[in-house]
Design brief:
The chain is α/β, with parallel strands linked by helices. Helix content is 34%, strand content 21%. It folds into four domains: 97 residues, 3-Layer(aba) Sandwich (Rossmann fold); 113 residues, Transcription Regulator spoIIAA (2-Layer Sandwich), CATH 3.30.750; 111 residues, pyruvate-formate lyase- activating enzyme, CATH 3.80.30.20; 51 residues, Nucleic acid-binding proteins (OB fold (Dihydrolipoamide Acetyltransferase, E2P)), CATH 2.40.50.140. Bound molecules: iron/sulfur cluster.
């Protein structure tokens, strides 16, 4: 989301006559877009901000703007602490000196694969998460605006869009007529020239039968889903305020795999959450063994001031134990990903080429797996068939 917003802000600045320079020392304007989900990230961000104070002293005309989650819905309280910052902008807000523009309509330069924010904020208040406080409550973009934006992106060369939201399954409930994500997917699926649609991140509770049917019935919607589970233990899920049980989650996965054969599923897991016993952690490992996710993003719990968990729970799993659990999940995931990717050896997959990295073309399968291969000419944006000749846990190589 931050990346998408930075790209949009860059386009606005570009169209207002600003030019990018290579270092802060050369800049007339510095915009810091923050992502501070963890306290550690916030501390690093503040250090970066302090470093800019000296630049401002040397060149008082330098304008410093801070935006993103660090600011939150209101930035008034920050002005006293950082008087040398000229503007604090809420996530997605644009500076008044760029007024007349809108972030939603400042299209990033069309890339083969584009990021399109469709809903901001979250109403869920999971106990460990700062997002609802910093990004505010859910706010959907009008469906027509999104369709128009994607049409314009496609006209400029985009082939794939990834729709973004902290809680994307909630899309539309706050709009007149309450259009939902499935309706939006249906509309986007009709856009000629668009080849693929992805969306993230999903809350398991919002995986309605209607959304699952859309995923399986619309040919442009890719067979890939991110579905954070966070824990494989019901008591921990309850203290996390996730609002589902392990059995419910397993049932959603079964339904997904039944309706969309071969669907790639990624998840997020937090280890060492307050109160997580050995047995509770074993529940998480067992869930990972049973489901065999394609990707697992794992994080060790750390207290995030301002959240419910920071007020109500004691961070009682030792740092060593958290590290041990983190490694156990990583080790298991490596084993599963190695085996799953090895099954693709010798098969042919369709990939959309989105980048060239050190002379190698890179594209992804519909299931989101990265494939690298050598090739002549300009293949950017091409859809090609690759035969997989090498596999590793995190990527594939093809011919
Ligand atoms: S659903 Fe996601 S963004 Fe919302 S509170 Fe929970 S973890 Fe945070």
């Amino acid at each position: 989301m931050n990346k998408a917003e930075s790209d949009r802000l860059a386009v606005l600045l570009d169209s207002s006559g600003y030019q990018q320079v290579s270092s802060p020392a050369e800049a007339d304007l510095i915009v810091l877009n923050s992502c501070v989900v963890r306290q550690h990230a916030e501390d690093r961000f503040i250090n970066r901000l302090y470093l800019l104070e000296s630049l401002k002293k040397i060149r008082p005309a330098l304008r410093i703007v801070v935006t993103g989650c660090f600011v939150g819905p209101k930035g008034d309280h920050l002005k006293e602490r950082f008087p040398y910052v000229d503007d604090f902008l809420a996530p997605g807000e644009i500076p008044c000196w760029l007024s007349g523009h809108s972030l939603d309509f400042s299209l990033p330069k069309p890339k083969v694969c584009a990021l399109v924010p469709i809903i901001q904020g979250c109403n869920n208040f999971c106990s460990y998460c700062i997002v609802p406080y910093r990004r505010g409550r859910e706010k959907s973009r009008p469906l027509e605006d999104i369709v128009l934006e994607v049409e314009r992106l496609v006209a400029g060369g985009t082939k794939e869009v990834t729709l973004l939201g902290q809680n994307i399954g909630a899309y539309g409930h706050d709009l007149p007529g309450s259009p939902d994500l499935a309706t939006l997917l249906e509309k986007l699926n009709q856009i000629e020239g668009l080849a693929r649609i992805r969306f993230l991140t999903n809350h398991p509770r919002d995986m309605s039968p209607r959304l699952l049917r859309s995923m399986s019935g619309l040919e442009k919607v890719c067979e890939e889903i991110s579905l954070p589970v966070q824990s494989g233990d019901d008591d921990i899920l309850k203290s996390m305020r996730r609002d589902y049980t392990v059995d419910y989650y397993r049932a959603v996965i079964s339904e997904l795999r039944c309706l969309i054969p071969g669907v790639a599923i990624s998840t997020d897991v937090i280890v060492g959450f307050p109160g997580e016993s050995e047995a509770a952690f074993e529940g998480t490992l067992q869930l990972l063994r049973d489901i065999e996710f394609d990707t697992v993003h794992v994080a060790a719990y750390s207290t995030r001031p301002g959240t419910i968990a920071s007020r109500e729970y004691k961070d009682d799993v030792s740092p060593d134990e958290k590290k041990k659990r983190l490694r156990a999940v990583e080790g298991l995931e490596r084993e599963i990903a190695t085996r799953k990717n090895a099954e693709l050896l010798g098969t042919e997959v369709e990939i959309l080429i989105e980048d060239n990295i050190d002379g190698h073309w890179m594209g992804r399968t519909r299931t989101g797996k990265k494939v690298f291969f050598g090739g002549q000419g300009d293949l950017l944006g091409s859809m090609v068939i690759c035969r997989i000749d090498k596999t590793s846990p995190w990527s594939l190589h093809g011919i």
